[in-house]
Amino acid sequence: MLLALAWQDHAVIVAYLAGMIAFGVYLSRRQSSDEEYFLAGRQMPWFAVGMSVIASLLSSLTYLSEPGEVWKSGVTHIFGKMLAIPFEMLIVWVFCIPFMMRFRYTSAYEYLGHRFGQTTRRIGACLFVTMVVLWMGFVVLLSAKALARVSDLQVPTMMIAVFERAGISDAAASAQLLIVIVTVGIVATSYTMLGGLRAVIWTDVAQVVLLIGGGVFTIGFIAVTTGTWLPDWYQATSIHLTRTATTHALPLFSFDPFVRATVVTVAFNMCIWHVCTHVGNQMTVQRYFSTSDVKSARRSFVTGSLFGVGINLMLVVVGLAVLYFYAGQDIAIDRGLSSTKEQSLIFPTFAVSRLPAGCGGAILAALLAAAMSSIDSGINSIATVLTTEQHSVPERSHVGRAKTITLVAGLLITIAAYCLSFLPDKWGVVDAMPRTFNAITAPLGGLFLVGMFLPRVGEKAVIAGVVAGLATSICLGYFEQLAPILAMLGWATSDRTLSFTWIMPCSLSVTFVASLAASFIEGPNTARRDGLTWQTRDVKPNQKSCQ
After folding, report:
1. Shortest CA distance to 499 belongs to which of 477, 481, 474?
2. Is 540 helix (H, G, I), strand (E, B) or coil?
3. Which of 70, 269, 315, 356 has the most crowded CB, counting CB atoms within 10 A?
4. Is residue 373 pLDDT above 80, yes or no?
5. Cα separation of 321 and 114, whole Å?
């Protein structure tokens, strides 16, 4: 597939892809029941679940964006993320995990049905599916861009001609991108469909090991070949940020909503993202459901959090090392990459261009691993949710239907990946995420948090709150695109882009406030809420599916 690479690189990549599919085939023999396919029999080891959680949440977006972000803001961005960790861990440990683990659900959205009603449950499921299709599409797109850009993939002339006849600019690059997107989508969909959640979790464990190995080897290689270490890399980064007018370290805080990011707003944004993800995202909650009890789920959470901290810090060090290799030694970035527009591609480009034969392929395999660890989770979770929503159809086992849904989900994600390639290039990875799939994260998480902590809110009120929160995400995220329309209506606007770090906090706040305000119009919720809110958590629930 990657004809510009050495044969050793080919061997590593092909062996990785073949191994993932073979493992899915091996585990497919055990997929006979719903609980085994969707929840791995609720007997997965806590350490494997923890590694799988962080593998799903990090993805190739983090694997590429963190080293690339160093070229923009040095270490201040990661400092903001680390600042959020104690707060998010406390909230998830104390509130989210023990509350959700009290129920023997397969799909997290069953809670919404019991707490509010079936309409809210369907809205939650639809929001989740939409979010995951966009999220996984984004993951596939970024991975495909990186692989296509650094590998010089050879595309058949006939395929290029088809793209040219369709009027697509830069037909060769578009054809390259499509080939890689389809390849990644097919492999991830195949082993997920065959092996179920057990395959997803165990392949995630292998992918975390590969991901860490690629980063650690890169750090060691640069340290040995240049005779330098972390202080030298940090100094070179500081000089680079000072010399480059288009990049700067993040300020501690600013009330100006047009400042791209600050340490405090990054921390606040990440805290909200993790809380919403651990309570309203099936990809995460399903893994905790696959453990045997609250104690195991909490151990999984701590394991995932510690791995997350370590991997993020490792990737920042990778970014510092690669920046020193090029900027610190006045070496032009390979393949003519721009340090201001293509930061996310510098790490894989370095791996292919500078590492020994075979090692570059291992880094690309690690990139694929980071992508597939999220894609398989997303596809499996979509199949789980949609199959659970159709349980009214009498059938002995739903595994067959789930595998069909898995194939369809993989196709939709592949299509979404190509469509997302038309997003504005100037946003970059970090800025684009809250404007695409993460625009849904806060309203979806808000659904669960309102259900947990606002007992008086009923179904109509919470739906109104979610609609308001989603509208807030879209309006803030696309403020620059909406500015001309607002100007035509006589409203004062700015041609500056609002900070991406305010999108989720504002969206979640609006969801809460709008839900509470609407509850005073609708009237207090009079339905029984035994065990379904934080205040009534000690009361035994009436639902058969709850403990």
Report:
1. 477
2. coil
3. 70
4. no
5. 51
Residue in 349, 173, 317 with CA at minimum distance from that of residue 232: 317
Please list, residue by residue across 240-270, b when 16 or more beta carbons sit within 10 angstroms of its beta carbon and e when fewer do: bbeeeeebebbbeeeeebebbbbbbbbbbbb
Rounded CA-CA distance 402/322 in Å is 43
118: tokens are: 């079936």
Note the pLDDT tens digit of each residue in 151-205: 666 677 778 787 778 777 677 777 777 887 788 778 777 766 766 677 778 778 8
Instruction: Report the CATH fold assignment for 34-522.
Output: Sodium/glucose cotransporter (1.20.1730)
* Residues present in the chain in total: 547
Domain regions of the chain by residue span = 34-522
520 exposed, middle or buried (CB, 10 Å; 0-12, 13-18, 19+)? exposed
Written as six digits, the tokens of 256 are: 């100006």
State the SS3 of 207-243.
HHHHHHHHHHHHHHHHHHHHCCCHHHHHHHHHHHHHH
What pTM, to 2 d.p., does this model score? 0.84
DSSP tag of 541: P
Q: How far apart are CA 210 and CA 43, in angstroms?
A: 25
- Give me the DSSP letters along 52-86: HHHHHHHHHHHHHHHHHHHHHHTTHHHHHHHHHHH
Give the whole-number percent of the chain exceeding pLDDT 90: 36
Residue 384: φ, ψ to 5°: -65, -50
Helix (H) / strand (E) containing 20: helix 7-27
Task: Give φ, ψ of 546 to 5 degrees.
Answer: -105, 155
**120-131: per-residue pLDDT in tens?**
999 999 999 999
Whole-angstrom distance, CA of residue 166 vs CA of residue 160: 10
